[in-house]
Fold each of these.
Amino acid sequence: MSCKKTTKYECKVNNNLSYWFLKNRIVHLFLSGGNMSDTISELKSLFKKHLIYIRLNRKNPRDAGKYRKRLKPKVTKNQRDAI
């Protein structure tokens, strides 16, 4: 996908939104007995409408295990055991 010619950055399709668009239309796409090309053209236009820019040289460190190190609080049981 390419953005407008006047933009500074290259573009790509927003994956998060594209999965949401597909999820909402997949049933209609397969179960409609009519023409699938209308739904596919609608999806294409939505994908082109929601593009994101690819910004180069981004070097923010990401700590993937940050929340894995934290211990979960111990939950006490406030009910009796069932017999």
Amino acid sequence: MNMTQNHKPVRSFRDLEVWQRSMELTVMVYRLTQKFPREEMFGITSQLRRAAISIASNIAEGQGRLNTREFRHYLGIARGSNYELQTQMEIARSLGFGDQTLLDEAERISLRIGQMLSKLLSTLKAKLADR
């Protein structure tokens, strides 16, 4: 049975701390991009929002799949979306878009999510190897 860091059984993707932090990050990205220039609505604003949404969505979809291999696949997609988000935030920073304090906080959370995804991927890889 899947367990969270504090060893409670995972009954739903909502029980996963990495999903919870991803949702927090998504809301933060929406707040951050509200202050972006209007002409960027279909540019970097849209890209940032889609990447953030993709992280939590792929964690949820993967956890709902029928086996560990599929879960790992979707976690890999979530990790890729997180890297995409980090790159886009770096571009936003370089362009001077958004509140820099909020951007710093979003980057910190994104880095933590990356660590959590890597650890979960390693744990699932070991679980598959034990079979």
Amino acid sequence: MTVTVKNRSRIVVPEVVQRRAGIKSGDRLEFKVSGRVITILPEPPGSGDDTPAQRRVIDAQIAEGLDDIRKGRVSPRFGTVDEMLASLKGKSTQRPKKSGSR
């Protein structure tokens, strides 16, 4: 589809193109330029929304979680919600062993 750029600086993306690209009202878009080529990409959710202070807190929490994983300080994997709840209540969480060998 071709559109004509008018004297004003705004360029309108035709509705049919927006629909095909899944662009909805309120979506944030990122524009990249390389020579005479303009690429329009959806801004990933959450990007640009955090303040630097919020980003530092989030990054610190992620680092702490990864450190816990590296040091083995993680909860066991549960097969069901009931197993997880039993663990929280201090009851046995051992899963029955499957018959047969691997």
